[in-house]
Amino acid sequence: MKPDAIYVFEKCADTNTRYGLVSHRGGDIPRFPAVWKRPKSRAGKKYVGFRHHQDTRPRHGKGDYTIELENARMCTDFDLTPEYPRKGCGDFSNSAVLIAFSEDWARLTMLFFEDKKGEEQALFAKWVCGEIPESVEGAAAPLP
Question: What is the pLDDT of residues 54-63, one digit of tens each?
Answer without folding.
Answer: 665 554 456 7
